[in-house]
Write a structure and sequence with these properties.
Layout: H1 22-29, H2 37-49, H3 53-73, E1 78-82, H4 92-95, E2 100-105, H5 108-120, E3 127-131, H6 137-142, H7 144-149, E4 157-161, H8 173-181, E5 189-195, H9 202-214, H10 227-232, E6 238-239, E7 245-246, E8 271-277
Parallel strand pairs: 1-2, 1-4, 2-3, 4-5
Antiparallel strand pairs: 5-8, 6-8, 7-8
The structure holds S-adenosylmethionine.
Length: about 280
């Protein structure tokens, strides 16, 4: 299910209330309220199909936080968050209050909510949101908001967190990544996380595969990839320690007790993660 020969659909035009959207479903997984009945209905079904989905979404969100803090520790103070979603918890500009941040999403509710948050928090000229399909790197990188907020002569951390499984094989993921990399200064980072079943127990693998099938009926069909394919996307980057690992193994910083009844190990096999540095 790698999506070879398949394109993800075009960017949504307006708010679509007939089909669930991954931005709003993910918001529901995280306990947010920026979702509609159609998204909640899908989310409830997903939760029954694969009961680890909510903790998995939360552990992905926590990984994003660890990456942002690690980038700051390396002196990177600029972030380009591609497929930033509905910012329910732990947004980059909140984790990194002094940083410059551009959010990019193509889902209208995600964009509207980001605009509201940035306005309310008076993020000013140090953070902005671009409504765009990140499969068009030139549009994103040349957008006036991107140019105003980010300084491309200095390192930028590009975040592709839990978004590439919504990009089809025919959309050419390595080509998209390359076109971002070409425009980045040395020392920049690319951070990505992606759903997988490689090391999953049979029951979990079957459940998440069935869930990926269900996403075919949403605005955002999803594809699973294996470690070899995910790793190949970092060609041309130096891998940052600890390399390509399950995201719970990427620089864990504290025991995260979010779901007290859950074995922390249970979510481990379902995501690959990695950070590459531009040399
Ligand atoms: C599962 S959410 C992930 C949100 C956030 N990156 C995180 O990990 O917490 C996926 C987001 O990617 C967005 N997305 C998917 N494909 C996209 C594309 N081609 N261009 C822009 N946004 C996209 C969706 O609208 C959604 O908000």
């Amino acid at each position: 299910m790698s999506g070879d020969g398949e394109h993800a659909p075009e960017a949504p035009g307006d708010v679509d209330l007939d089909k669930p959207s991954t931005a709003r479903i993910y918001d529901w997984y995280l306990g947010g309220t920026n979702n509609y009945a159609v998204d909640r209905h899908f989310g409830e079904q997903a939760d029954r199909q694969f009961p680890l989905i909510k903790p998995l979404a939360m552990s992905n969100r926590q990984w994003l936080g660890r990456v942002v803090r690690a980038a700051l520790a390396e002196g990177i103070t600029q972030f380009l968050d591609l497929g930033s979603g509905v910012p329910t918890v732990g947004n980059v500009h909140e984790i990194a209050p002094g940083a410059r941040v551009v959010y990019v999403d193509y889902e209208p509710v995600a964009v509207a909510h980001s605009e509201l948050i940035l306005e309310r928090q008076e993020a000013g000229d140090r953070a902005g949101i671009v409504r765009a399909d990140f499969r068009d790197p030139d549009y994103v990188l040349d957008h006036e908001t991107t140019r105003e907020v980010l300084d491309f002569s200095k390192p930028i951390c590009v975040l592709m967190v839990s978004v590439l499984h919504f990009v089809g094989g025919a959309d050419n993921v390595p080509g998209i990544i390359r076109r971002y990399r070409w425009r980045l200064a040395p020392g920049s980072w690319l951070a990505a996380s992606h759903i997988t079943t490689d090391d999953a127990p049979a029951e979990g693998a079957a459940q998440i595969s069935a869930l990926a099938e269900s996403y075919r009926d949403t605005q955002n069909p999803a594809w699973l990839r294996d470690k070899a394919e995910f790793t190949s996307w970092f060609d041309g980057f130096e891998l940052v320690e600890p390399g390509i690992v399950h995201l719970t193994d990427w620089r864990p910083d504290s025991p995260e007790v979010l779901f007290p009844d859950l074995e922390p190990e249970s979510v481990r096999p379902f995501y690959w993660s990695g950070v590459g540095r531009v040399g």
